[in-house]
Write a structure and sequence with these properties.
Strand content of chain B: under 5%
Number of strands of chain A: 50
CATH topology of one domain in chain B: Serine Threonine Protein Phosphatase 5, Tetratricopeptide repeat
Radius of gyration of chain B: 26 Å
Strand order of the largest sheet of chain B: 1-5
Number of strands of chain B: 6
Distance between the termini of chain A: 39 Å
Structural class of chain B: mainly alpha
Largest sheet of chain A: 22 strands, antiparallel, barrel
Shape of chain A: globular
Largest sheet of chain B: 2 strands, antiparallel
Number of helices of chain A: 7
Oligomer: heterodimer
Largest interface: A-B, 115 and 98 residues
CATH architecture of one domain in chain B: Alpha Horseshoe
CATH class of one domain in chain B: Mainly Alpha
Strand content of chain A: over 45%
Helix content of chain A: under 10%
Helix content of chain B: 40-55%
Chain lengths: ~900, ~500
């Protein structure tokens, strides 16, 4: 996302353009996944092989839209792949990457208390199940296996307890009581430290006749979760041939094959499938007495879902009640995905004179993918197999005329006239078993316990026809004036409103040309621009349709869609202006680039929340406007520049302020005050409130008296009655980065530090994990010097800071001997909002290029480079405990909620590149 | 060169004109229809209504917990009246308005265009309207003032809230019109198999409408006795071809689920299919069904609950964390093998209105001096026997139960508080509460109306006992002006604000 959320609902992702071909980056993640749940299938742009990238240009302003259309309105990322220099060149590249969990982003567990929610069970202490296990006629202490929390009995090695493994027939502890102690191997044991590989070869040849390129890449990315990897194979081929000095033709074709397995489940997703994400288990609902290594051994011994979370050991029901064995999850309940993708184009350019070029091209990005999900028999809930076949194609037809002509000595004119037709096609079908699986481990639709329901089909066409023109006039390399206009006609808007125009103008003034006496000033440019962008609607939002639901027996069932469509939609609009200053001093050793921008998106096409008493939950309207304004500053410095040694510093800093200026108003002047974008497990939500920021977190809050939290007579806080109180804002105050690069002869060393200041994140993981007593925060000595978990009678408990209803300090001590003390139970959502600031050592690199004197002795070898690259090496500073504040449920507008967050991964790569 | 430029120009023009086909036609969704037969909307809405009323999902229907029929084992938030975390007020509102009411409304709009027979049109519209009245009854008794006169109209995205009493009385008028229409076309056709409850039988629906009118009349008896009396008496009247109310369990409004997913009873989904162990019996209800102290247990007990691991009936304390194994569970062999109930069977029907409830309403009417034929005692007896029969108890066992001093109308007392002398209405309320087992929503209306039986306040409760739901957060945020007016009009948007018929 560049420069803030412009659109409340639609994607705010920049458009990727690879060698002139716009490529799809539509995530297939369901809406459900974005609010937590389901697998994160990533986004198709990740198909691009980083080793093949020559350069990346980021176009942030709306000015990029004349050429790339509305989709460029969120910015364009232009990727240029490697071309090769004159003559035959062969490059071999090999990278081995070692990854490991960043421990600062994973829970620390308290190690003093074990399984349970409190004194709720039937042994005399109240902490254990109590029934005869060994057959001596006397009841025994048994772990409360059903209780996925650690608010139970204090660990005591002399206390012998029948734990889950005492009921596993193959366990060495079968039928044995074992000491009541904290597990030696906690959940961190679950994660592995894999080695990933990336190998590629690229052959290029560049001659006067044209150029040629052939490459192959194989990469295997192994995840830190067992049984997870993404394998990619890519073949690329491209050639241009100069038929005459005026006519060049060429074609590129890239083939990508991507195979994924074991991508992580995300967040919570309702009916018992939380188990697809083992992190919800580890971070929220866990028993600290459970040894993960023993779970692994149990899985390996039994090849079965032998779980610590046994439903009813007393009655011989050892199946899972809420949580499966995590190894069972990764080995049996995994997804796989396979994608065949082709990206390519054919193009021709004709240059009848030296100032005029015609270019024509047809480009295609098409893929078909199959995503399969599995949930095996004996997992809790409903076993299933599902498959999602997804076909996508985008075709672009382009025709361009370019003029580049000097008019006299001082003027230069560049002009552009072009047309673009874009056709998008989505076709997918989702089918699933119904009611369970017949045979365990067989993942096919025919293995459905009950007759499968009709699959869900989706068939979408989308066409946008564009016509555009632009001209740039420059005078003496000092003043540049630029103007563009584009006309689009889109299939997704009603006929009367489907054509729209958007212009842009910009000006540049290199005023250093007038200050040539100031020798310390190398370059100075002032620039200003104004641009409009029009955008169309999502597909199929103009005409009302019904949903056909699966029949009730033989009775067909239908229903109105909950979203009211609108046949009077107009294009949505963005107007933005920016002004920038570029300065460079002292022979370019010091540089400055600053931009201020101010953009307003209005008439936004939104499925606004209406009162559901209308019978609809949402209605598509042109409603809402969002303003983004901000500053971007870059500083460049070269403190040292000598023959053998140089030091470059680059500092980036940006701040974006986002404001929802209007939502929508009905005919009688009633105005909605908020638009909810997504709501989550604990009742917290991400919103676009009127007058506030898009990305505002709402939830329940404390109530306050003169700024003090109000405590009720029972010692618990008085909470708000509803969940619509502003408790946070996901937008950062500013973000920045500092990159230092040193070169000494053939060595290079650089490191990048990223900083984010402000913004908030809601942690469901803390809301639950503090309740279930997993974290050290729930074990301490209280103001009386006693363990807080002691009973009140034993001097435990604590006093919630705050005042009573009449303003007196609260003195009521409450018990902390069960799960209600620290977590979500009696605390508002506000209590689990954390500052998302961080300082990270994002990347460090050491490189060495073999000196030419050595290379020349290596026969055909032309160059050898060695690099050691570290990624995400160190989170230097953060406020969110046990997690990476950047971790999120999904890309998209719903950021700032952590539910079952994955730990961050640090990695070190060794890269060897040889050219021949 | 010029020639080539012209050629390219022509090529560009051709390219664009090649796309001159109707772009707009691309935006017609080929997979979803723009019109459907009216009866399919009716089936969907009826199914959705049955699901909402029957569900045990903690995101939607938590009334078994609030009414202390069931108790949650580990995750006890809803048993402790936490309505907000799961946005339950929003979910109920949406389920009624945007899944049930709007589709019935749409069916009523489409019926005149796709049903040709005049009598059938009238019957189908009347039946759809009866289900709308039924749905609005639960909305108005759950929230108070609600959007009504401007509801179900997308041209008013911010509908005003109507006064709860005005809505309620208008629903009664609508019922009368529906009854009249069904009476006039009793021999006409209707939905047939698209109506899962009564197969479209107009007479059955007339019985249903009268029985529901009886219920609606009794609901306001404490507030407007005269209105209640006239509604009740006209509902039970069998003069002039009026059907009167239910007279046997065979007339109950049962939505019979299928044994195959996804058309099963939602209780089975939550309790059996999920594999979770979230719900057990509540000690409040177990104490009434199994009083001990020499008083025989209610013969309905094994049909309502299973025994626990130790082979006895036990219920969890309200609001507490309780064990699954140590307590009774809702009865059914798929949840606990050997148990004889059917509640957790996938094809266990949803019960939208039944004969036992009708008899208790008649008993109450008689106790209030309305002319409904019979006495409070005779209807009370019939209600108890009908409920026992409903759950599967044999006539002899039911008769023996009715003869117990704690049950017989003359001597009935609350076994949980034997020394308290019960008023006739409390006696009726106590047995009706038992008869409304598994129909938590109706039990909630009963205990709010008659303030009996008295439920146990969970010591860990997050609020006072909710006598209404707060308005959905969505209304508070988008329908701001009307929400504020409604909240002020009912005396504050709190769970403790009494609704107009909840007379203390």
């Amino acid at each position: 996302m560049l420069r803030g959320y412009k659109s409340i609902y639609n994607g705010n992702q920049a458009l990727f353009v690879i060698d002139g071909v716009p490529v799809d980056n539509t995530s297939v993640n369901s809406a459900n996944q974005m609010s937590g749940g389901g697998y994160d299938y990533g986004s198709p742009a990740s198909d691009i092989n980083p080793d093949d990238i020559e350069s990346i240009t980021v176009l942030k302003g709306a000015g990029a839209t004349a050429l790339y259309g509305s989709r460029g309105g969120n910015g364009v990322i232009l990727v240029t792949t490697k071309k090769g220099k004159k003559g035959l060149g062969i490059t071999v590249n090999s990278t081995e990457t070692w990854s490991q969990m960043d421990k600062s982003t994973f829970p620390k567990y308290q190690n003093q208390y074990g399984a349970g929610y409190g004194q709720f069970y039937n042994d005399p202490s109240g902490y254990f199940f109590y029934f005869d296990v060994n057959g001596d006629g006397k009841p025994d202490l048994v772990t409360p296996t059903t209780e996925d929390a650690s608010f139970g009995a204090k660990f005591d090695p002399s206390l012998m307890v029948y734990q889950w493994d005492a009921f596993d027939k193959t366990s060495p502890n079968f039928g044995k009581a074992t000491p009541w102690v904290a597990a030696k191997n906690g959940p961190a044991t679950f994660f592995r430290s894999p080695i990933s590989t990336n190998e590629s070869i690229l052959i290029t040849n560049n001659t006067d006749q044209g150029d040629f390129k052939l490459g192959y890449t194989n990469s295997v990315d192994r995840g830190i979760i067992p049984n997870s990897s993404i394998t990619k194979n890519q073949i690329e081929f491209g050639a241009d041939h100069n038929i005459t000095s005026k006519l060049t033709v060429g074609a590129h074709m890239n083939y990508f094959r991507t195979d994924g397995i074991g991508r992580g489940g995300t967040g919570y997703d309702g009916t018992n499938s939380d188990n697809r994400n083992v992190l919800t288990n580890f971070r929220e609902w866990w028993e600290t007495n459970v040894d993960v290594r023993e779970l692994k051994q149990a899985y390996q011994r039994n090849q079965a879902n032998t779980t610590w979370n046994m439903a009813d050991p007393q009655d011989g029901d050892y199946s899972a009640i809420f949580w499966n064995n995590p190894y069972w999850v990764t080995e049996h309940n995994y997804e796989t995905d396979a994608r065949n993708r082709y990206i390519g184009d054919v193009h021709a350019s004709y240059k009848p004179t030296n100032w005029l070029t015609f270019t024509g091209s047809v480009s295609l990005d098409t893929y078909s993918e199959l995503d399969e999900e599995r949930y095996d028999v004996t997992s809790i809930g409903v076993p299933y197999y599902s498959r999602f076949n997804n076909d996508y194609a985008e075709t672009n037809y382009n025709l361009l005329a370019n003029v580049d002509k000097n008019l006299g000595h001082d003027f230069n004119l560049k002009a552009l006239l072009g047309t673009n037709i874009r056709r998008d096609y989505f076709n997918n079908i989702y089918a699933s078993t119904n009611g369970g699986l017949i045979v365990p481990g067989v993942y096919s639709l025919s293995n459905s316990l009950v007759t499968p329901l009709a699959p869900t089909e989706n068939d979408q066409f989308w066409e946008v026809n564009g016509l555009f023109a632009g001209a740039t006039l420059s005078w003496k390399n000092m003043i540049t004036l630029d103007g563009t206009i584009r006309r689009d006609q889109s299939s997704t808007l009603p006929k009367a409103n489907n054509t729209y125009y958007y212009p842009s103008v910009s000006a540049g003034f290199v005023f250093s040309q007038l200050l040539k006496d100031w020798t310390w000033l190398s370059y100075a440019k002032l620039r200003a621009s104004y641009a409009e962008v029009g955008n169309d609607a999502p597909v199929y939002q103009t005409l009302d349709t019904y949903n056909i639901n699966s029949p009730f027996g033989s009775a067909p069932q239908t229903a109105l869609s909950n979203v009211k469509k609108n046949n009077e939609l107009r294009p949505e609009r963005t107007r933005s202006s920016e002004i920038g200053l570029e300065l460079s001093f002292l022979d370019n050793r010091l540089g400055f680039d600053g931009t201020y921008y101010n953009g307003l998106t209005f008439d936004e096409i939104l499925p606004v929340n209406v009162s559901s008493a209308t019978g609809y939950t949402n209605e598509y309207l042109n409603a809402g406007s969002v303003r983004n304004k901000g500053v971007e500053i870059s500083l460049l410095g070269t403190p040292v520049r000598t023959q053998n040694f140089s030091w470059n510093i680059r500092v980036n800093w940006s701040r974006n302020v986002n404001k929802v200026e209007s939502l929508y108003t009905d005919g009688s002047g009633n105005e909605a005050k908020n638009l909810e974008l997504g709501s989550f497990q604990n009742g917290e939500s991400i919103n676009a409130p009127l007058g506030g920021s898009l990305g505002t977190i709402e939830g329940s809050d404390y109530t306050y008296l003169n700024g003090q939290k109000v405590v009720q007579a029972n010692g618990q806080y008085q909470l708000t009655a509803t969940n619509n109180h502003v408790i946070g804002n996901t937008n950062p105050d500013w973000i920045g980065g500092v990159n230092n690069e040193f070169r000494y002869k053939n060595f290079s060393f650089s490191f990048l530090i990223d900083v984010r200041k402000g913004g908030s994140v809601f942690s469901q993981d803390m809301a639950y994990g503090l309740a279930t007593g997993l974290y050290p925060e729930t074990v301490y000595n209280n103001d009386l010097g006693n363990p807080v978990r002691n009973s009140l009678a034993d001097g435990g408990g604590f006093i919630r800071p705050g005042v009573t209803a009449n303003g007196q300090p609260n003195t009521k001590r409450i018990a902390a001997d069960n799960y209600t003390a620290f977590g979500y139970v009696y605390l508002p959502d506000r209590a689990f909002i954390y500052d998302a600031s961080f300082v990270k050592l994002r990347e460090a690199l050491i490189g060495y290029t073999l000196p030419q004197s050595v290379v020349s002795k290596l026969g055909p070898v032309k160059g050898v480079t060695l690099q050691v690259i570290g990624h995400n090496l160190w989170i230097i500073y953060k406020n969110l405990p046990y997690s990476d504040p950047e971790e999120s449920l999904s890309a998209g507008n719903l950021q700032g909620i952590q539910e079952g967050a994955y730990p961050a991964v640090r990695s070190i790569s060794f890269n060897l590149k040889a050219t021949f | 060169m010029k020639k080539k430029a012209i050629i390219l120009g022509i090529a560009a023009a051709t390219m664009l004109s090649a796309c001159k086909k109707d772009l707009t036609s691309l935006n017609v969704n080929p997979k979803n229809p723009s019109s459907v037969p009216s009866y399919t909307l009716f089936t969907g809405a009826e199914h959705s209504l049955a699901n909402t009323m029957t569900s045990s999902n903690v995101n939607l229907n938590i009334f078994r917990l609030i009414e202390q029929q069931w108790e949650e084992t580990t995750y006890t938030d809803e048993s402790n009246y936490n309505l907000k975390s799961r946005a339950i007020p929003d979910n109920v509102w949406n389920a009624f308005y945007s899944n049930v009411l709007v589709n019935l409304e749409q069916a009523k709009k489409v019926i005149p265009t796709d049903v040709t027979d005049a009598a059938q049109q009238k019957n189908e519209i009347a039946i759809a309207d009866i289900l709308q009245v039924y749905t609005y009854y639960y909305l108005v008794t759950t929230y108070g003032n609600i959007p009504y006169s401007q509801a179900l109209d997308i041209t008013k995205p911010f509908p005003k809230f109507d006064d709860q009493k005005t809505v309620y009385y208008d629903l009664l008028t609508r019922l009368d019109n529906d009854i009249a229409a069904l009476k006039a076309n009793a021999s006409g056709a209707s939905y047939g198999a698209a109506d899962v409850i009564y197969g479209g039988d107009p007479t059955s629906w007339q019985l249903f409408a009268n029985s529901f009118k009886l219920k609606m009349g009794i609901t306001i008896a404490g507030y407007d006795n005269a209105k209640a009396q006239s509604e009740v008496e006209s509902a039970v009247s069998t003069a002039n071809g009026n059907t009167g109310v239910f007279t046997s369990n065979s007339q109950n409004a049962m939505f019979t689920y299928l044994s195959a997913t996804p058309n099963t009873n939602p209780i089975w989904v939550d309790l059996v299919q999920s594999g979770r162990q979230d719900f057990v019996a509540n000690s409040t209800l177990i104490k009434l069904l199994q009083p001990g102290n020499g008083i025989p247990s209610d013969p309905r007990l094994p049909y309502c609950f299973t025994v626990n691991n130790a082979g006895v009936y036990a219920g969890g304390a309200p609001g507490a964390n309780v064990s699954f194994g140590g307590n009774s569970k809702p009865s059914g062999p798929l949840l606990v093998s050997g148990s004889i109930g059917k509640i957790t069977n996938p094809d266990f029907p949803a019960d939208l209105l039944d004969y036992p409830e009708v008899e208790f309403n008649l008993a109450e009417a008689a106790a209030r001096g309305y002319n409904v034929g019979g006495t409070a005692a005779s209807h009370y007896d019939a209600g108890v026997l009908a409920s026992e029969e409903f759950w599967g108890v044999s006539p002899s066992a039911a008769a023996a139960y009715l003869a117990q001093p704690n049950v017989a109308f003359a001597t009935a007392f609350n076994p949980a508080a034997p020394t308290t002398v019960l008023t006739p209405l409390q006696k009726i309320a106590l047995q009706e509460y038992l008869a409304l087992y598994n129909r938590g929503w109706d039990a909630w209306i009963l205990t709010r109306r008659l303030n009996y039986p008295v439920l146990v306040a969970p010591p860990t409760a997050q609020s006072a006992f909710p006598v209404r739901f707060t308005y959905p957060v969505n209304e508070q945020e988008v329908n701001v002006t009307n929400y504020n007016q409604a909240a002020a009009a009912i005396g504050g948007d709190a769970v403790t604000t009494r609704l107009f018929w909840e007379v203390q």
